[in-house]
Amino acid sequence: MINKLLLTCLLVTVIAGTTAAAPVVINFQGRLTDDAGDALPDDSYNVVFGIYEDSVGGAPLWSENTEVISHQGLFAHLLGSVNPFPDGLFAEYDRLYVQITAESIILEPRSPITAVPYATVAGDLAARYDNDSIFIALNPDAHKVNLYAEDGHERAIMKANDIGGQLLLMKPEDEIGIGLHAGLTGNQAVILPDSSVSSEETFNEPGLTVDLEVTPVTLITMEMTDLAVVEIEIPEEGYIVLEGKCYVELSGTTGPNVALIQIDEYEGGSSQFPYYALAGLGGYVNTAINYFPIYVTRVYYKDAGQYEFRLEGRANYAAPALARSWDHVLTARYYATDYGPVNKITENPAEANGTSGIEVIDPQNPSVTKTVYKIDLRDQAKAEKQSPTIDND
Questions:
Q1: Model confidence over 82-92: pLDDT tens digits?
Q2: Pair 53, 97 in one domain
Q3: How many structural domains are present in the chain?
Q4: Are 199 and 299 a contacting pair, CB within 8 Å?
């Protein structure tokens, strides 16, 4: 009667063929004895091998039925040679056990599978595929893995050290083409070929465009004149933040003389509250030149596409009042992300969607009040794109 299975060597070596599709098998060796501990006669015995997640109970994760030939009770079998192991079996479970059933008798206890079958590399690994001469080598002393091309030169290197990991992709001339150094900072951390990063690779990144016009411009009374114009193409819907600056020069009268500067999407038109800045006084001590700095800003929410914006200005009073501007700078920046409400002011109740109005004094006509509405650009973007309007005062 079979009593037990003595494992003279539960070594279980992963044996792979020369192609990636070759199955993994495990070398299993044992000894069959009777109740007295004596070896069973040399013969063929039916044995069922099963692999389980637990040391007792449960259903097998894999099994195979085979005949083993014993010699003085000793036998050997390649597990997986009859029924291949399921893909990922040794990767999905931290610990597995082998159960043997010999001639319908379950031999207990189950034997734990040692760590060897879980290993993907053993010692100094070197793999060669003769057909295309591609090599893989592991150097444990240098803590790196090398991939070689057909000409025998290193083409990819992955290594680790105390300051971090490295991945190096080499050019044919044995220079680094692309390099990632986790333990370094600055320009040394990432090596890329020249011109390898464009707007397509860095989709949705912030970007800017700037127009600078230094020629003095004489401002026309109550008629908008372009001072600087920028074009910007954005890859995805988002915000365009515009900033404009210039100097205004006012002269020619001791009476009122004021200039208005603003940012606008459309050429010409009227002032757009509250996106303008006023420069000037209600009266002057003489007709000499007076200088005023101007800064204006405005935010738009736009869909992907190309857009044009302008820094524009006008004189609010006729001759002999004279208004000029110069050193015009208009900057447009694109942002794909917001971190909270981005508001705008509109005088159009239809855009407000029930938002309560705010009563304000018109700075160009202090005796007049107007109702304006503060709304989120994101809520109005679609309506504005379908029916763009100009907010006139």
A1: 999 887 787 67
A2: yes
A3: 3
A4: no
Average pLDDT over residues 189-202: 74
Q: Which of 87, 118, 149 is the last residue of a domain?
A: 118
Side by side, the strands of the sheet bearing 358-362 are 343-346, 365-376, 358-362
Q: Are residues 23 and 106 in the same domain?
A: yes
Query: How many CA atoms within 13 Å lie on the side-chain side of 295?
Result: 0
**Residues 167 and 249 placed together within one structural domain of the fold:** no
- pLDDT classification of 153: cutoffs 50, 70, 90: confident
Q: Which of 99, 92, 91 is nearest to 119 (CA)?
A: 91
* Structure-model confidence comparison of residues 19 and 217, the more confident one: 217
For every residue of 289-328, DSSP letters joined together read -EEEEEEEEEEEEE-SEEEEEEEEEEESS-TT-EEEEEEE
pTM of the model: 0.51
- Do 218 and 257 share a structural domain? yes
CA pair distance 301, 336, nearest whole angstrom: 10
**146, 157 in Cβ contact below 8 A?**
yes
**Pairwise CA distance, residues 64 & 50, whole Å:** 7
The CA angle 140-143-147, to the nearest 5 degrees, is 90
pLDDT tens profile 373-386: 888 887 666 555 55
Question: What's the full length of the chain, in residues?
Answer: 393
Same domain, yes or no, for 114 and 130?
no
Q: Are residues 153 and 257 in the same domain?
A: no
CATH code for the domain in which residue 105 is found: 2.60.40
Q: How far apart are CA 31 and CA 70, in angstroms?
A: 8
Task: Give me the sign of the Cα torsion angle 326, 327, 332, 333.
Answer: negative
Picking from 191, 213, 246, the residue at the C-terminal end of a domain is 191
CA 82 vs CA 23, 64, 283, 321: distances in Å = 11, 6, 104, 102
**Is 392:269 a contact under the CB 8 Å cutoff?**
yes
* Better-predicted residue by pLDDT, 248 or 76: 248
User: Cis bond leading into 274, ω under 30°?
Assistant: yes
Instruction: Quote the CA–CA distance of 390 and 272 in Å, as a whole number.
Output: 7
Taking the C-alpha atoms of residue 323 and residue 219, their distance in angstroms, rounded to an integer, is: 6
pLDDT score, position 67: 95
- Domain range for residue 160? 126-191
